[in-house]
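Deliverable D5.2: sample structural annotation.
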Amino acid sequence: QKTAYEIKECDWSSDVCSSDLERDWSTVALQKLKSQAQTESQIALGQDSEVILEIAAKANMKIAEIYEKLERWNDAINQYTSVINTFIRMTDMVENAYLRIAEINFQLHGVDAAVAVYSHAMDNSLSREFQAKMQYSKVLLLQEKGRYQRAIQELTIYREGYQDVAGKIGFPPDKAAVLEAQLYFDAGQYDASATTYQAMLDTFPTSA
């Protein structure tokens, strides 16, 4: 039976071929690290120690990072997916793996593909805090890429749907209001930006 986070590696497959220009030392280093990570993972999965799990998860993440450096995008995505499926308890590592998959998909396929990764992550988690983080990540990505109107829409979903956990993930309602005002400003909607700032000051006077 699949876990809450379990996904298929083929869900992230792209059409980009791996580079044929890998340097010998990179390949050797990669093979050594893969062997080390496999051993550590086998040990970690039989232990309750969070320290051991973290070491194994970091080793597997490092392999994915090397694949990225080598522009072996499919391998990188599959490796990050393996981290998501294997180290479910390491929520920070799972989150980072999704963030990297989203970034790769942005580089290969654009903003919409990256946003779809976050949506997929939300669909495969039962944790509202995790879902809130992914929703917030959508907003930041869209803001960074200049998709302000879409960012405002996704922020509205965040503000209306995740108020109960917003403070727990470090992005409480007052900060969300400030971000919304900034998004309106970035979009050139200055009246809406001013109105949102004023509403924020009226609602959260201590945030001024």
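Annotation notes: The radius of gyration is 20 Å. Residues 181 and 194 are 7 Å apart (CA to CA).
The annotation will be released with the project's public dataset once the embargo ends.
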